[in-house]
Amino acid sequence: MTSTPRIAIVGAGPGGLVCARILQNHGIPVTVLEREAAATVRSQGGTLDIQGPTGQVALRAAGLFDRFLALSRPEGQEVRMMDRSAVMVRHFIPDAEDIAAPEIDRGQLRTLLMDSLAPGTVRWDHSVETTTALPDGTVRLEFANGGTEVFDLVVGADGAWSRVRPALTDTEPVYSGVTFVEIHFDDIDDRHPDLARLIGQGTLAAKAGRLSLIAQRNSNAHVRVYIAFRGPLDWNAGLDPDDSDALRARLLGMYQGWDEGLLAMLRLNVGPFINRPIFVLPVPHTWQRVPGVTLLGDAAHLMPPAGVGANLAMLDGAELAQAVIDHLTVEEALAAYEAVMLARSVSEAKRTGEMLAVLMPDTDSVEPLFPSIRGD
Prior knowledge:
The chain is of the alpha/beta class. It has helices at 14-25, 55-61, 65-71, 106-115, 188-191, 193-199, 244-254, 260-268, 298-301, 309-326, 330-359, and strands at residues 7-10, 31-33, 47-49, 79-82, 88-92, 103-105, 122-123, 128-133, 139-143, 148-151, 153-156, 174-185, 203-208, 211-217, 223-230, 274-280, 293-295. A seven-stranded mixed beta sheet has the order 5-4-13-14-15-12-16, with helices on one face. Strands 7-2-1-11-17 form a five-stranded parallel beta sheet. Strands 8-9-10 form a three-stranded antiparallel beta sheet, with no helix packed on it. This is Flavin-dependent monooxygenase.
């Protein structure tokens, strides 16, 4: 850079934090603006498999790979695939030295990245309302608290419903036709040992037609279960979202005929049932270059949940930071970054969309359809 740009990253997720870390490692100041009031205000979500060609590349670039390995769970790479009768269709058990895609809780990863930044990098309780590209090539951010600030570079790392994206495109996410309903189990080994044995050390996926049950181990004997199905956005119409008994009854009706061992995940859970409809950005999702503004991660390429979202976000963040480091101007950096990121995101979005269509077909067939697993 010929001069030090004023850089704001909107959103303190993995992609934005990786970008900030690498910029700071090269002496480039950066501010991360986060709408949450504090780091501990909410759970950061479930477990992530950090993959060699994407997320691990980013963590190596950030100088954090060894610290990540110390926190990760290689045993969490185990995958059990079953039909609705709980018959094992495929089973992958990682070798002891396998670090192709070890698991880590989202919260642990975020803490690792946060702790690597200079104190005060993240400004909490800074919710961006609007993003405006100005005629001189700078970008104005307006905050929910009424304040404004101008930057030379604004990076939208603020997820599916990005407040930065409208400065580049008016495209909005659309419902994919698939909904996940999330439930949790704590201390599963002690409280529900039969379920713990069924799930194993990693991920269990049971599928039949448009229905799936997916259970993932997190750290500390915590399990997140996703009741996933293809159906209307208003599948829970007429039900109180806080009425766990009514939601459970409707879901059990949808999964009638499934093995009782699998249905125990619904029967034993005391709630809540958290509705998570899956939204995606259209494919391809691109935009014309606007000075001083760009996107990364879900803000740029919201895809179905196929294990690539956080990994691509971190790779985006690492590549964007390196582009800023390597080029004389912000615009040269953004042109170089977007040329690579947009082409990759279009390819990945097509692939994950095709995978979702295979895994969650619009059919009542009970035959399970699975992608291949490493080790097949």
